[in-house]
Amino acid sequence: MKKVSKHKRILQVLLPAATLISLYFVPWILIRVWIMPLPDTVEEQMNQAMDYGFDGMIVYVDQKGEEPGFHSAGWKNREEKIPADPHSLFKIASIGKLYDAVAVTKLVKSKDLSLDQTLGEFFPELTDRIEHAENITVRMLVQHQSGIPNYTDVQDYWVSPPKTSEETLSLVLDRPSEFQPGEGYGYSNTNYLLLTNIMEKVLGYSKFQYIEEEILCPLGLEHTFASLADVNSDDLMSGYYEGVEEDIKMSDYGSMIATAEDVGVFLRALNDGTLFDEGEEEIYASLYEYGHTGLIPGYQSIAKYHEDIDAVVIQFVNTTDFDGYTWTVSEIVYNRILRIMRRK
């Protein structure tokens, strides 16, 4: 009989122990969501998702050849036990970048703006405060290739958010660039704050007014708003953060607000090209994405078009935890909804 080496005996002892230790750190919630039997309907999947710690959820589906689907589960307001309403307003966070990119596209086509113009050209006063400002182009800002630090990454930003865009921008002034402009990628909300400032300098009025005139009104969208200040709070879905008891919907982190249907109609028009006038679609195709996600305290969202089933699917969840698994769970649930649709 062969002798078992000392090292092999040690491994035979350590490996099972290591396996047991690793199982302790497994995010079981993710495994649970992943392996659950796939329900037959979107509604069943959403109701199932309420067992994963979500307070409320909205899903809007626009699939070609079918009537739009409006789905909801859980609470619009858990304190008052008001059921989730698929027509509620919601903070869409970074999904708003799609609207900004379309606005830039339209201004470029009308020759009011050039993608090659630089940040320094518009704001010479920033050349000493933002590194490489004289080389950062509008295109780089849209595509997150500027190297400018992200203001939401500044410590305690979400604890005490600035009240004005000037205060927000000041958080990253005089900070070193993360990379040479055009030589890397770094998602930065600062890029879109600066794009807003550029567009408003070109226009002479608010960016959102331009978005209303050029995007929302032509599409007949009456439930998309610039900010919290523009809506009736009763129409806004409550927002919750894990570990915080109270509703945080009145905390203003700066976000466009819309219904899932309005976002879905916009996204369909963006993807099928009906949103654009002649020559604009080619500009946009070289510039930015055709779907997006959004995340701020209390609100997480996914807005995407799926060509294989010719469907726009919007998902809103009003529960977040930046240190937990709520975002990953929401992505798994979203993908399970797509599986249900594809199975049909």
* Percentage beta strand: 5-15%
What does the radius of gyration come to?
A: 23 Å
Number-wise, the strands total 11
Oligomer: single chain
Give helix and strand order, one letter per element, not per position.
HHHEEEEHHHHHHEEEHHEEEEH
The residue-averaged pLDDT reads 93
Largest sheet at a glance?
Answer: 6 strands, antiparallel
Give the % helix: 25-40%
**Shape label:** globular
- Which sequence of strands runs across the widest sheet? 3-2-1-10-9-8
Please give the count of helices: 12
Which residues sit in consecutive blocks of at least 5 with pLDDT less than 50? 17-24
Protein structure class: alpha+beta
- The rounded distance between the terminal residues' Cα atoms is 60 Å
List the defining traits of the structure above:
three-stranded antiparallel β-sheet; six-stranded antiparallel β-sheet; alpha+beta; single chain; 344 residues; 11 strands; 14% strand
Question: How would you sum up this structure, described in words?
Answer:
The chain is of the alpha+beta class and 344 residues long. Helix content is 38%, strand content 14%. The protein is built from twelve helices and eleven strands. The chain has helices at 6-24, 28-35, 42-49, 96-109, 119-122, 138-142, 165-170, 189-203, 207-219, 260-272, 280-285, 326-343, and strands at residues 56-63, 69-77, 82-83, 90-91, 224-225, 240-241, 257-258, 292-296, 299-306, 311-317, 319-320. A six-stranded antiparallel beta sheet has the order 3-2-1-10-9-8, with helices on both faces. Strands 4-7-5 form a three-stranded antiparallel beta sheet. Strand 1 (56-63) and strand 2 form a beta hairpin. Helix 2 (28-35) runs parallel beside helix 12 (326-343). It is globular. The chain starts with 5 loop residues before the first helix and ends with a helix.
